[in-house]
Amino acid sequence: MNYRRFGRTDWRVSEIGYGMWGLAGWKETDQTEVLNALEKSVELGCNFYDTAWGYGAGASEEILGNLIKRHASKRLYFATKIPPKNFKWPSKANFLLEDCFPASHIIEYTEKSLKNLNVERIDLQQFHVWEDSWAHHDDWKRAIEKLKADGKVKHIGISVNRWEPDNVLNTLKTGLIDTVQVIYNIFDQNPEDNLFPLCRKMDIGVIARVPFDEGTLTGMLTKDTVFPKDDWRATYFVPENLNSSVDHADALRPLIPNGMTMAEMALRFILCNDDVHTIIPGMRKIRNVEANIGTSDGKQLNKALELELKGHRWDRTPTEWSQ
Fold first, then answer.
1. What is the rounded CA–CA span in Å between residue 127 and residue 181?
2. Model pTM greater than 0.70?
3. Which CATH class is domain 3-212+275-300?
4. Which residues touch 271 (CB under 8 Å, ≥6 apart)?
């Protein structure tokens, strides 16, 4: 495993972190397998774990808390997220700050996360959605300043809405945000335009999420793929999105190097970008942990391939199904 400096936090975090959404609240999740996968990740050098209260109403946080306790002798960095008070993902431009993150709610859910994680201080507390129109409101600023002063939170971050990487720029300029989490992959390259340069200038840590475009970039989806009705992907991969996603993935197949999977190529593409400090794929199986962490070996994609993949940028705008 290779490690990168995580912006102004000055942490050295693993290039491949662990996204913990799928570890709680998904019916097909095998908890024994999940625990084994987590243990394998620690063994292989992963030291950054990202969860949220919204992942199983705190269940994922409890799983992470137990992992931290089992490995108390190791420095595992952990991040969680405050759900919006209206419990609507993503936020919308017309949402008010008081409907999503009033100070009392920020403090209340930080306390819940502290209890679930069984820690005295959260390494990185993040807002799970955001609107840049809230940048200059004082309520959220007072809340995070209190949490920091009370020693309950070390750093503050924001998880940016899907396909809206610029919907945080003014907030970052306040100087109060230490990290940003954004969708970045072969298709979603638009954070390179404005977000990454600002993060570089302000020394803000960058977490890349959804590296496989919710599964498209694993190469495993087809136009006949059907998800169970209680799986959120059933409402995301509506025919309009599924058909187009599969077409875009199929266009990549001729570019995959011999001996490499599409998923490996997708991760290695992100690792080519020094503006990204850690990637957080979801991993519920040991084989996924081994494959994903295996890409952090210092071997770069061929430059010509990297440039060709850049030509597969797919600019999208939020829709009713993009969540």
1. 10
2. yes
3. alpha beta
4. 15, 279, 295, 296, 300
Count Cβ atoms below 10 Å from residue 86 Cβ, excluding itself: 15
Phi/psi for 41 (5° steps) reads -65, -40
Select from 116, 177, 120 the least CA-distant residue to 144. 177
Q: Is the peptide bond before 90 cis (omega within 30 degrees of 0)?
A: yes
> Where along the chain do its domains lie?
3-212+275-300
How does pLDDT run along the chain (323 residues), one tens digit per residue?
Answer: 999 999 999 999 999 999 999 777 666 667 888 899 999 999 999 999 999 999 999 999 999 999 999 999 999 999 999 999 999 999 999 999 999 999 999 999 999 999 999 999 999 999 999 999 999 999 999 999 999 999 999 999 999 999 999 999 999 999 999 999 999 999 999 999 999 999 999 999 999 999 999 999 999 999 999 998 888 899 999 999 999 999 999 999 999 999 999 999 999 999 999 999 999 999 989 999 999 999 999 999 999 999 999 999 999 999 988 87
Closest CA to 109 of 184, 28, 54, 148: 54
